[in-house]
Design goal:
Shape of chain B: globular
Distance between the termini of chain A: 51 Å
Number of helices of chain A: 7
Largest interface: A-B, 36 and 52 residues
Structural class of chain B: alpha/beta
Shape of chain A: globular
Helix content of chain A: 25-40%
Number of strands of chain B: 7
Strand content of chain A: 15-25%
Order of helices and strands of chain B: HHHEHHEHEEHEHHHEHHEH
Structural class of chain A: alpha+beta
Number of strands of chain A: 11
Order of helices and strands of chain A: EEEEHHHHHEEEHEEEEH
Radius of gyration of chain B: 22 Å
Oligomer: heterodimer
Radius of gyration of chain A: 17 Å
Distance between the termini of chain B: 34 Å
CATH architecture of one domain in chain A: Orthogonal Bundle
Helix content of chain B: 40-55%
Chain lengths: ~210, ~350
């Protein structure tokens, strides 16, 4: 997945920076969007994304995932950047798109609500320095950057909200060595399905 | 053999069973009788059982000590200077049926409070309470505790959010897999999700505010690294009969791992060796299947498996719990420990209280 730089008119976009704003739910740092992959409960999309950097280092993954704060998870990840998988830069957008799909599948009501509110207006993440995942203000009217997160969110919105495709289960991307805690990452499903089909429990233990 | 049976008896001697017609009083002779049913493997079964038994048996004395420590821990955690002050503000949740473990644990707790701290729990029963503690012995699949905590949270959510009421879970043992499933279902439960939204709080409040204390963890999360797998969880190298039996269950993608990956755990810490683990698991599985096959019905409950009850939709040989308390045995333990059906010619090691109701 390749993403190149773009220019946006600031009056024609839905922009988010803080998780406390109206569209804060779009941020990977937003609280309340808890995920579960390979039976591991993960407090935020950011923690899952960062953990995917280190498939060969389950202890680093665990340290990242055990942080309740997404910002702390990101800071922990920064300590270990030299341990990142070597193809990280080539696959990071693909992984982020998978993370966003998992977030939507497992938090459909809340996340689809925020995405629907954006209608079909361009989504951008605002930053003061990150021109890769976000955009930076060039002047009063112009925003410039790759806006990778915003564009992946628009792709998600187009595929699953506007076109109404089913997202009950999300398969892992075709990436070699896509692992969590030493096991290959499996298909992730909407927990309501697990509940409806009694996949987690169905008896009174003694 | 006799000596090993005596050693096992030393540990299990206070195993209590009030099933009125039981003929299985715990004794070295009874233990020997149970072991001999494994034929030429009898000595091995007893040796291996003896190897891990001290870690996993909670006698009444051990339970009382653990519960006393737990009460002190809660008192300190909640910042009270005395046990009386803590009890004044605390309610021990009492919702399980009479024959279940919670009632018996609460009896022990009340007795500890009276004898060791001079506190009469019932004397404070009518006082307004801030802390709510759910005691139980084992969380296996998590279904019972999910149901009860869900009920409490729905009834007390506003006070929980405002921190006017706290909730804690106190166990002797939980299974990692079941505990995770229980928490995940609380996070994802539709009623609770509505309450999270209504009170503008994140689902993370469950992770953050549900205080859990346990004395022992059964690390049965097969998908995670560094798990001890301190339970019966066989590898795929099983007899034709066992594989045929498993083939009857439909696939359950993504949820339950059917077999343990060979050579895991990397370091065997629970059984006496990796080879002995494989051998004992195989013996328990085959004997358990033999017992199940004696059930004269096509409609056998899918929860019943050779290595103990499990979730019906899971394609596994059973939960494989290896943990026992003085008061009863969990039906999630391998059948060889508790199967007791007239005509099946099997003497269980532990009599099952209330017939597994």
């Amino acid at each position: 997945m390749k993403i190149s730089e773009r220019i946006y008119n600031s009056s024609e976009v839905i922009a988010f920076r803080s998780t406390k704003e109206e569209f804060g739910g779009l941020s990977n740092m937003a609280p309340g969007y808890i995920l579960r992959v390979n039976d591991v409960i993960i407090p935020s999309a950011e923690a899952l994304y960062q953990a995917c950097r280190y498939p060969l280092f389950p202890d680093i993954q665990q340290e990242i995932i055990s942080q309740n704060s997404p910002m702390t998870a990101k800071m922990i990840s920064r300590k270990y950047l030299s341990h990142s998988r070597q193809d990280w830069e080539e696959i990071k957008y693909t992984i982020m798109y998978w993370v966003l799909q998992v977030k939507l599948s497992q938090n459909f009501d809340n996340f689809s609500h925020v995405l629907k509110k954006t209608a079909d207006i361009p989504i951008v993440e605002l930053s003061t320095k990150d021109k890769d995942w976000a955009v930076i203000a060039e002047n009063k009217n112009t925003l410039k950057g790759k806006n990778a997160l915003g564009r992946l969110l628009m792709k998600l919105r187009s595929e699953f909200i506007l076109e109404n495709n089913d997202i009950d289960c999300v398969s892992p991307p075709a990436i070699y060595g896509f692992m969590l805690y030493g096991s290959d990452i499996e298909t992730v499903c909407n927990p309501e399905l697990e509940l409806a089909h009694s996949l987690l429990f169905d008896l009174d233990s003694k | 053999m006799e000596e090993k049976a005596e050693q096992v008896y030393e540990i299990l001697q206070d195993y209590h069973c009030d099933y009125p017609d039981t003929s299985y009083e715990m004794s070295a002779q009874h233990i020997l009788k149970w072991a001999e049913q494994f034929g030429e493997d009898a000595d091995f079964v007893l040796s291996e059982f003896l190897h891990f038994l001290p870690q996993i048996y909670v006698s009444k004395a051990r339970a009382a000590k653990a519960l006393k420590n737990r009460l002190v821990n809660f008192q300190e955690f909640y910042g009270y200077h005395s046990m009386a002050e803590f009890v004044l503000n605390t309610h021990f949740i009492d919702v399980q049926r009479n024959e279940k473990s919670q009632k018996e644990i609460l009896i022990v707790i009340k007795s500890i409070l009276q004898d060791d701290f001079g506190v009469d729990y019932d004397q404070f029963a009518d006082q307004p309470k801030k802390h709510f503690i759910y005691f139980d012995d084992i969380l296996a699949t998590g279904g019972t505790i999910f149901r009860d905590l869900h009920h409490w949270l729905c009834e007390n959510f506003e006070a929980f959010v405002k921190k006017e009421k706290t909730i804690a879970l106190s166990l002797f043992c939980y299974h990692e897999l079941g505990y995770g499933n229980m928490k995940w279902m609380l996070i994802q439960n539709p009623e609770l999700k509505s309450l999270f939204n209504e009170h503008s709080v994140s689902a993370g409040i469950i992770e953050k505010e549900l205080l859990t204390r346990t004395n022992y963890v059964i690390e049965n999360q097969a998908k995670w690294n560094n798990q001890k797998l301190n339970c019966a969880f066989p590898i795929a190298d099983q007899s034709k009969e066992v594989l045929q039996y498993l083939a009857n269950f439909s696939e359950n993608p993504g949820k339950a791992q059917v077999f343990r990956v060979p050579n895991t755990p990397v370091q065997e810490q629970f059984f006496s060796s990796a080879d002995n683990r494989n051998r004992l698991e195989k013996i328990f599985t085959e004997k358990g299947l033999e017992l199940l096959k004696k059930v004269n019905s096509q409609d056998i409950d899918q929860a019943k498996r050779p290595l103990g009850y499990t979730v019906r939709s899971h394609k596994t040989l059973g939960t494989g719990t290896l943990f026992f308390t003085w008061r009863n045995i969990s039906n999630t333990c391998p059948l060889v420990f508790w199967w007791d059906v007239p005509g099946h010619q099997w003497t269980p090691l532990f009599c099952l209280k209330n017939r597994g109701i």
